[in-house]
Amino acid sequence: MDDVTVFCADQRSVTALVQTCEDFGRALGAKVNCRKSEAMLFGEWHLASSAHFPFTVKPDFIQILGVWFGKEGAALKSWQDRLGKINSKIGLWSSRKLSIEGKALVLRSEVLPVLQYTAQAWPAHTTVCKAITQTVFCFIWGKMGRLKRTVIYKEPRKGGKGIPDIPTLLRASFACVSVQRTLVEKTGSAGRSMSHLFLMPLWRQLGWDKWDSSIPYNGNAPWFYGDVVRFVREHQLEGLKPDLWKPKTIYKLIRAKDLTELVPGLPAATAETVWTNVASKRLTNGHKDLSWMAIKGGLYLRSFMHARNLCTTRYCPRCPYVEETSLHVFWQCPFAQGLLDALEHELRDSVPRSCLSYHSVLYGLFPGTHDMEAIQEAWRLVNCFKDAVWLARNRLVINRENMSVRDSRRFIKSLLRDYSILDSLAVDEEEEE
Ligand SMILES: [Zn+2]
Fold first, then answer.
1. Sorting pLDDT into bands at 50, 70 and 90, what band is 378?
2. Is 113 exposed, middle or buried (0-12, 13-18, 19+ CB in 10 A)?
3. Average pLDDT, rounded, for the chain
């Protein structure tokens, strides 16, 4: 008998429990270690009869399957344990140089599972949600946040980065467990009766009419059920069919309401095309990040740093009195134009140099009629170009080192070689399948 929890209503039940354990032990030759077994007393139970109580009595908290229960504060105690665990997990991953997409994967596969289980027993408090959010954003950006927080939760095709909004997912988990218990579980099950007892008055407030007046209810619901109602209202989930109450489904519904991020200077209808280009599967995660950051204004450019009082100048290191923005660095700056000229040969097979505009370089939009393959090739090349420009810029600003157009072109060629290796690996994989 490992990890068994028994609820006893009176001393007679306790005696019967001990007796059952002893009978069981005699039959099997395995004994229940009463000293290691813990008990907790609730309600009007008095400790006076502890002589008949062979277990270690815990005065405030008891841990069942890794979750704390007992006095007020048990939920917070459970969450603090979990927060400690995710901090050490994230600490391990932070030392690696990961793309934002890579970090999203770590959050989904390593961090979320640590929390989701607890979220089914206790909803995450506001303070817990704040702490999680802070940990997540610190993991993604480092100490200094770069962009509005809600943006990165959006799907890539809407201009986000698909980072899981963990607090929302956790609240959805608890809400789903509660709803499932009341609406889906069989009549008479313990879970259903409990949810019914506290949640029915709240369900009625929400206009849900699955109301069985033969079951008793209690209008003073504990705080954790209050959060379910807040969650339902906040995300307008009233009237959602019971079988749709699954955390992933709910999360999808919430994300579906996200608006597509606008691209400054472009019509709204074009934005989704731009974001789809930026998140193209044919780009490496590093190139996706660079393209995305260049548009969202999250790169550590002097204009960005100056606005935050982190840099004394806002001008391009190569062009006096010209503000260093994404548009300048990747298009207007003579260094960028010179490098594009030098790439004429590489561009010839896809989209000619003369057809390129800053829309091509920043957004992957190519004017004129070019076939799909040519556009995809050009978009890759342009991304290697941005990578090279960014490297040259950082060498100049950080290391005071001048990288020539020739060096940059050589760097671009090595990136293109890497892409063709990736392509041949992808072909091999397809053939194996
Ligand atoms: Zn410049």
1. very high
2. exposed
3. 88
Task: Convert the pLDDT of each residue in 34-84 to its tens digit.
Answer: 778 888 887 777 555 555 678 888 888 999 888 999 888 899 999 999 999
3: which residues sit within 8 A by CB, 6+ positions away? 64, 65
**Strands (DSSP E) found in 365-430:** none
Return the pLDDT at 49: 53
Long-range contacts of 17-20 (CB under 8 A, 24+ apart): 18/54
Burial class (CB in 10 A: 0-12, 13-18, 19+), 270: middle
In angstroms, the CA 7 to CA 110 distance is 34
Taking the centre of ligand 1 as the mean of its atom positions, its distance from the CA of residue 215, in whole angstroms, is 74
Q: How far is the CA of 355 from the centre of ligand 1 (A)?
A: 22
Ligand 1 centroid to 143 CA: how many Å? 28
pLDDT of res. 21: 87
Query: How remote is the CA of residue 312 from the centroid of ligand 1, in Å?
Result: 17
Looking at per-residue confidence, does 315 or 30 come out higher? Answer: 315
**C-alpha dist (Å) from residue 370 to 15, 279, 349, 356, 384:** 84, 20, 11, 12, 20
Summarize pLDDT for 340-374 with one digit per residue, the tens: 999 998 888 788 888 899 999 999 998 777 788 88
The ranges assigned to domains in the chain are 11-59, 66-261, 268-432
- Å from CA of 426 to ligand 1 middle: 38
| CA 296–ligand 1 middle distance (angstroms) | 20
For ligand 1, the distance from its centroid to the CA atom of residue 307, given in whole angstroms, is 18
Q: In b/e form, how buried is each residue of 49-87, taking b as 16+ CB within 10 angstroms?
A: eeeebbbeeeeeebeeeebbbbeeebbebbbeebbeebe
Centre of ligand 1 to C-alpha 330, Å, is 9
Pairing of strands 38-39, 61-64: unpaired
CA–centroid distance, 23 to ligand 1, in Å, is: 85
